[in-house]
């Protein structure tokens, strides 16, 4: 549509996985304004967007944008290069690593900011062109424990509900989710649920803004989630408050879970987690009284050395109370980056999965992809992202192609991550900006943002939505799929995609859960939720209405025991640091730091300290504070607040100058999902 010299087109937000849709008013070069799309076409956000969706687009025209490829000159300094030269250098470097150390010495970090189609190609590029299964993405740092925990209990590693279940439920049970800041428009839905008379229970180490709306807010110590979740489940079972019929008909493993939770009495839970015994009981009774309950969580549950167990414990709780598969019931992990559900998971840029969670280890599946992609593929899984950084130490990996991520800041153990990036034999970074990781690269390839390209994203309720190009591409930058195609063809392949629709057609022909999701239908229907098996299938609003996606069709309950952080408090480090996001920033800041309006509200990280703790250490609001762990130290500004308990401190993750991952550890990982323990690190603080 043209309005005078202005164009207006709809697209999907590139900031978070709520997946708001909005119209963009543009003169082709700049975003001038946005407004929520026609609610018919945007069932997720209806008429809302948050501050980032409304205002934060300066990054697209930032002077810091990379507009041409960069290579190093003979002195190791950066200089601009033609695409021809940069691609030749990249291909030569990849080939040198492969020739000297073998295909499996290469690694790829794929981008959950990129489209589904591009992520499909990132997985294909790793396996077909580089010949390795070592391809992973930022899901490893956040919700891969959700995927592991839900896959083994229910079958699909994704939310079982649709956003509209928030309107149909009686009780929303939230834990480890700072919903209003990390998923603002979902936060609005939760608040609306409360205004409409619905119940809300929040368990969290921080009294976040959403907790202010709760009927019950219970403060917990970070890192002991299996204890309090099992305590709630035990109370329900012991007092016959669980759903016996549902358990009988639709689950297996109940007796084992009953046995496993038997030691978690309310009094024991209080002793370990700090959650008052009475609040364990009242939370359990509220779940039992509600006809319909939704269980929502974010990274406060998953980013632990036992994140998979935490998620399995929540899945047990939802199933024993019969809260799965009916309207207004289910589990809802709120995914983080805009396309981590679709690009990071569904499209299979993963060491053990092809698109649609088809297993690399499954001979039949692997043969299907070998035939389609005309290559041999090893049945052995590659390294997960967090393992990659340790594998470089052992010499098992030597080269990396890093697309749209910033591991220098986002990996646990920043000092270690920087050493690995510095020392690796060959590194290509593809990004919009010269981010902290790109500074270590041999070649930097300029990519474009979601505003400058077309494709699809999948949001947190499995909804595939259209991304439309609303701005001209900046300078000589290219879409990720175009760059991948150029590299693949220089490495002897014959990719011939003219557009992302052609990529989507190939992908869905190989991916049963996306079988009916064509671009045309997504445009027409305003989004389709997977699984969508064929053109006639309407998509799936709610999972598990009839059967779970397990071999026997039942929820396989998994007994979960006591778990504690790998970095528990000690005399030397008597406080626990937990980390997270703030409303006005996004991840490592590449997209939000260029926005002056945003920076006015939040231009630095800080540390939240309880007033009693601050007084004990002689710290006042606004003082610089040193935080030390066994891995390093940072200095940040104190925010003295009752949001956190006396032995917990909280710091955000958004600024390189105070990189909080200096304090975390690359070795503290969940044993199954390999998710790092970002949410509980023993620290000490002191005034500077
Ligand atoms: Fe974008 Fe998330 Fe804000 Fe919606 S809530 S406008 S998807 S950042």
Features:
Barwin-like endoglucanases, binds iron/sulfur cluster, 24 helices, Rossmann fold, six-stranded mixed sheet, seven-stranded mixed sheet, alpha/beta, Dimethylsulfoxide Reductase, domain 2
CATH topology of the largest domain: Rossmann fold
Tell me the major beta sheet: 7 strands, mixed
Shape assignment: globular
What structural class do you assign from the helix and strand content?
Answer: alpha/beta
Strand content: 15-25%
Number of domains: 3
- Average pLDDT value? 95
- The top-level CATH class of the largest domain is Alpha Beta
Put simply, the count of helices is 24
Named at the architecture level, the CATH assignment of the largest domain is 3-Layer(aba) Sandwich
Q: Which parts are unreliable, with pLDDT below 50 for 5 consecutive residues or more?
A: none
Rounded Rg: 24 Å
Cα(first) to Cα(last) distance is 57 Å
- Strand adjacency order, main sheet: 6-5-19-18-17-7-8
Write the layout of secondary structure elements.
Blueprint: E1 2-3, E2 6-12, E3 21-26, E4 31-36, H1 51-55, E5 70-72, E6 78-80, H2 83-101, E7 106-109, H3 116-130, E8 135-136, H4 144-153, H5 165-168, E9 171-175, H6 179-182, H7 184-195, E10 199-204, E11 216-219, H8 225-238, H9 244-250, E12 251-252, H10 254-261, H11 266-273, H12 277-289, E13 293-297, H13 299-302, H14 307-320, E14 330-333, H15 342-346, E15 353-354, E16 358-359, H16 363-373, H17 385-394, E17 399-403, H18 407-410, H19 414-423, E18 426-431, E19 443-446, E20 455-458, E21 463-467, H20 480-490, H21 500-510, H22 519-525, E22 528-529, E23 555-556, E24 575-580, H23 596-601, E25 606-609, H24 611-617, E26 624-628, E27 633-640, E28 648-652, E29 681-687
Helix pairs in contact: 3-20, 3-21, 4-14, 8-11, 8-12, 8-14, 11-12
The structure holds iron/sulfur cluster (SF4).
């Amino acid at each position: 549509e043209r309005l005078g010299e202005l164009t207006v087109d709809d697209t999907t937000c590139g900031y978070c996985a709520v997946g708001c849709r909005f119209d963009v008013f543009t003169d082709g070069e700049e975003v001038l304004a946005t407004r929520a799309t026609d609610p018919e076409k945007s069932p997720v956000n209806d008429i809302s967007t948050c501050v980032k969706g409304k205002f934060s687009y300066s990054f697209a025209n930032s002077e810091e944008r990379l507009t041409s490829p960069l290579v190093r000159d003979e002195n190791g300094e950066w200089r601009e290069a033609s695409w021809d030269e940069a691609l030749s250098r990249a291909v030569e470097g990849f080939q040198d690593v492969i020739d000297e150390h073998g295909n499996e010495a290469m690694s790829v970090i794929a981008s959950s900011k990129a489209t589904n189609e591009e992520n499909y190609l990132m997985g294909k590029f790793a396996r077909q062109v580089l010949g390795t299964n070592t391809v992973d993405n930022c899901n490893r740092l956040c919700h891969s424990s959700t995927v592991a925990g839900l896959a083994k209990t229910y079958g699909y590693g994704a939310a079982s509900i649709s956003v509209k279940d928030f309107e149909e439920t009686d009780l929303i049970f939230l834990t480890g989710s700072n919903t209003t800041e990390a998923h603002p428009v979902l936060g609005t839905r939760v608040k609306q649920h409360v205004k409409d008379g619905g119940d809300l229970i929040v368990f969290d180490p921080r009294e976040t803004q959403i907790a202010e709306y709760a009927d019950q807010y219970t403060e917990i110590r970070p890192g002991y989630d299996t204890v309090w979740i099992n305590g709630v489940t035990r109370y329900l079972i012991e007092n016959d408050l669980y759903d016996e019929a549902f358990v009988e008909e639709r689950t297996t493993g109940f007796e084992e879970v009953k046995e496993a939770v038997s030691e978690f009495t309310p009094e024991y839970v209080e002793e370990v987690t700090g959650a008052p015994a009475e609040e364990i009981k009242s939370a359990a009774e509220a779940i039992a009284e509600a006809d319909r309950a939704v269980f929502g969580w974010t990274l406060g549950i998953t980013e632990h050395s036992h994140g998979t167990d935490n998620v399995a414990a929540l899945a047990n709780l939802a199933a024993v109370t019969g809260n799965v598969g009916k309207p207004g019931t289910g589990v809802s992990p709120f995914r983080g980056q805009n396309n981590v559900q679709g690009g990071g998971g569904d499209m299979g840029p993963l060491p053990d999965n092809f698109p649609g969670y088809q297993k690399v280890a499954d001979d039949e599946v692997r043969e299907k992809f070998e035939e389609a992609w005309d290559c041999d593929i090893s049945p052995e899984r590659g390294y997960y992202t967090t393992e990659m950084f340790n594998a470089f130490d052992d010499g098992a990996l030597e080269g990396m192609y890093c697309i749209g991520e910033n591991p220098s800041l986002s990996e646990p153990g920043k000092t270690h991550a920087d050493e690995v990036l510095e020392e690796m034999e060959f590194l290509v970074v593809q990004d919009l900006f010269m981010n902290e990781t790109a500074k270590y690269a041999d070649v930097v390839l300029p990519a474009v943002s979601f505003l400058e390209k077309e494709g699809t994203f999948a949001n947190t309720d499995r909804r595939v939505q259209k991304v439309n190009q609303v701005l001209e591409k900046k300078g000589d930058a290219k879409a990720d799929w175009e760059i991948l195609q150029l590299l693949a063809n220089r490495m002897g392949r014959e990719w011939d995609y003219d557009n992302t629709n052609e990529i989507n057609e190939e992908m869905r022909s190989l991916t049963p859960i996306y079988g009916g999701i064509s671009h045309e239908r997504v445009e027409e229907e305003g989004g389709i939720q997977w699984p969508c098996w064929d053109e006639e299938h309407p998509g799936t609003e709610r999972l598990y209405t009839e059967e779970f996606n397990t071999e026997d069709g039942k929820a396989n309950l998994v007994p979960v025991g006591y778990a504690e952080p790998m970095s528990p408090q000690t005399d030397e480090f008597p406080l626990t640091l937990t980390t997270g996001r703030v409303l006005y920033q996004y991840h490592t800041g590449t997209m939000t730091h260029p926005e002056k309006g945003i920076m006015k509200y939040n231009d630095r990280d800080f540390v939240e300290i309880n007033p009693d703790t601050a007084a004990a250490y002689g710290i006042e609001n606004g003082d610089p504070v040193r935080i030390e762990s066994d891995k390093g130290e940072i200095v940040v500004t104190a925010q003295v607040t009752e949001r956190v308990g006396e032995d917990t401190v909280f710091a955000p993750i958004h600024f390189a100058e105070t990189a909080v991952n200096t304090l975390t550890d690359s070795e503290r990982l969940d044993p199954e999902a390999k998710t790092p323990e970002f949410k509980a690190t023993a620290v000490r603080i002191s005034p500077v």
